[in-house]
Amino acid sequence: MSHLEKEKQKLVARIRRIRGQVDSVEKSLGSEADCADVLMLLANIRGGINSLMAEVLEDHIRNHMMGPEKSPAPSVELAEDLIDLVRAYLK
């Protein structure tokens, strides 16, 4: 995960926004809101999750796979790790 406190706070803020969106879906379903409105809320949640996932993935690559202790030249192992991450992300 992100090693800077400021970055951690940004990620936590994103999670809280997503949680608020999920709560809105629950309220909408309970009040029998219009299906189009519920679908829009769900699309917003999916976008928020995808954005958060991309940021965490980028953070992982930068800090754990390509950090200063790693060699600058990409390796087959690094490529395989990246492929595995992307595949898991796209499931």
UniProtKB/TrEMBL annotation:
The UniProt GO MF terms for this protein read: DNA binding; metal ion binding
User: What name appears for this protein in its UniProt entry?
Assistant: DNA-binding FrmR family transcriptional regulator
- What Pfam families has UniProt attached to this entry? Trns_repr_metal (PF02583)
The UniProt family comment states: Belongs to the FrmR/RcnR family.
Superkingdom classification of source: Bacteria
Organism whose genome encodes this protein = Silvibacterium bohemicum
Question: PANTHER family of this UniProt entry?
Answer: TRANSCRIPTIONAL REPRESSOR FRMR, TRANSCRIPTIONAL REPRESSOR FRMR-RELATED
Entry keywords, A to Z: DNA-binding
**Any GO BP annotation:** negative regulation of DNA-templated transcription
